[in-house]
């Protein structure tokens, strides 16, 4: 492990696990109407790009954090898309 990788893992853990409360809230309530579809779409795409970048560089902190964040943000995005689909037209 490179000398500063511990800092990368610490930062990655903080930013990644910050999504846990939101994902838990969505899981528990099944509600996402107050979340921005555009923001979560762009964010999830960006996280996928960061993951690919980390894989290309073979950097553990980037791979670790972005793989987990893709799962959490992807879940929230999927629930947002499913909620939008189930909503009757106005």
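-> sequence recovered:
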């Amino acid at each position: 492990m490179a000398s500063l990788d511990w800092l990368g893992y610490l930062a990655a853990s903080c930013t990644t696990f910050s999504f846990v409360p939101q994902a838990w809230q969505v899981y528990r309530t099944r509600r996402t109407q107050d979340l921005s579809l555009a923001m979560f779409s762009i964010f999830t795409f960006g996280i996928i790009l960061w993951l690919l970048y980390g894989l290309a560089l073979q950097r553990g902190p980037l791979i670790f954090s972005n793989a987990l964040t893709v799962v959490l943000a992807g879940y929230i995005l999927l629930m947002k898309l499913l909620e939008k689909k189930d909503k009757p037209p106005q």
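The chain has one domain: 5-83.
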